[in-house]
Amino acid sequence: MKNRKIIISLLIILAIIQSIHAQYQTIDFYPGDTTHKWALSFHDNDIYCIANPNISQLSNYQLFKSSNFGDSWTLLNSFQQNINLMGFVSFNDSSHITIGKGMITKTYNQFDSVIIIMSQVGGLYPTTIKALNKDTVLIYSNGIIFRSNDGFTTWDTIMIQNGLVTKHTFANDEINLISEYVWFAYMEHDHSIIRTTDGGNHWLIVNDLSSYISSGTNPEVLINFHSLNEGILMIENVLYSTSNGGLTLIPIFTAPFGNIFDINSFSNGHILVMASQSSGFTPMKGESLIYYSRNYGFNWDTIDIYLSNQDYVFNLISMNDSLAFAITYAGKLFKLNLTTLSVQTVQLPNRKLKLFPNPTTNLIQINTNGIYKGTYTIIDVNGKVIQEDKFHKKEFKVNTSKLKSGIYYIRVQGNSKSEITTEKFIKL
């Protein structure tokens, strides 16, 4: 009987471990794979990965491809080249671009040969590449954006016009391409979100973020727009959602500890957040976390990728709104199927709202549990802001008579950025 109880306990522990690890899948290109995975890129439904079979020989690489969402892989080529893999863009099996400090290369033959095109961008040190297609490419370098519309033959410098301060620079990597002509960017000295609707020729200020930023700080700001209206921003470690192109920002999440350093958001409400457990914005070994929400940031879960203390996730790449991949410092590759992840409530340092009555008809009473002043926001299940106003005491009433029947969320933001709390209610 005692042995039976031990076996049952072990089976329960095994089931728990399997359910945790079901959150992600370790990618191996072949049985016994020990390659170091460096960079990943997507084109349509194809995935390309550059790997190193021997980490001690950095110029020896292999190019792999998957056409079934990472379930199986084919070796396209083994090659020897001096390339930098801070950025990697693919257009088909043969055509690829790599980018890094001091070097941009392109290939038309699976890296059997490469063309170094650094000199065509003034000899600067690019760190980010954004590609709309094989001809139209943006390169970020030292606060300046260069654009080529003819496959790197000629380049234009993206200038800030229409009354914006020209001396101020684009923040590193914080430019989102919504379409060929609609882009969002963050200006790190102006503390402003800007937008162009004509491919970078003219820009307009969308929102000055100065009021969200502590006085005298050089803030860490991330932007991630997935449409002309919808997106997620991170300002000083607080996540905000917007449904009107950045004009209005609604706080949705503060990391319980550590700092947020990467975000991915999608139109279906999925949000992926990379965070470091340390105080810096670059993860240390053994200190990376992934937070995940499947409902516009109302509930959160953590994705536990079990790594040694000598490893951490440094790149989280989303293929679509249901599939993401994570690359670690030690060259491991993981697949995250977002549709199968469970969403639970992470224990956040937030107060719990008390709502009465719930369900409600025309009026709902809110007890903020100690937040005496701030803003409340009512949001529908699609993330759209329905109603917003200020409050000046910890208990107040909200008129809900004009709301349609359905499920809503009410979010309370106090004067302190850590005072963010959300609760669901039903309108009859």
How would you describe this protein?
The protein is mainly beta and 428 residues long. It has 2 domains: 333 residues, Methylamine Dehydrogenase, Chain H, CATH 2.130.10.10; 74 residues, Immunoglobulin-like, CATH 2.60.40. The chain has a 4-stranded antiparallel β-sheet, with no helix packed on it. The chain has a 4-stranded antiparallel β-sheet with strand order 2-3-4-5, with no helix packed on it. Strand 31 and strand 32 form a beta hairpin. The longest helix is centred in the first third of the chain and has 20 residues. 33% of the residues are buried.
Characteristics:
single chain, 428 residues, Methylamine Dehydrogenase, Chain H, Immunoglobulin-like, 5% helix, 44% strand, globular
Q: What is the gyration radius calculated from CA atoms?
A: 24 Å
Number of domains: 2
Instruction: Indicate the CATH class of the largest domain.
Output: Mainly Beta
Count, helices:
1
Low-confidence stretches: 7-22, 162-167
Mean pLDDT over all positions? 79
Residues in helix, %: under 10%
- Strand coverage percent: 35-45%
CATH topology of the largest domain: Methylamine Dehydrogenase, Chain H
Distance between the termini: 53 Å
What's the CATH architecture name of the largest domain?
7 Propeller
The CATH superfamily of the largest domain is identified as YVTN repeat-like/Quinoprotein amine dehydrogenase
Q: What form results from the Cα inertia axes?
A: globular
Could you say which structural class the secondary elements and strand pairing correspond to? mainly beta
Largest sheet: 4 strands, antiparallel
Tell me how many strands there are: 35
Main β-sheet, spatial strand arrangement: 1-28-27-26
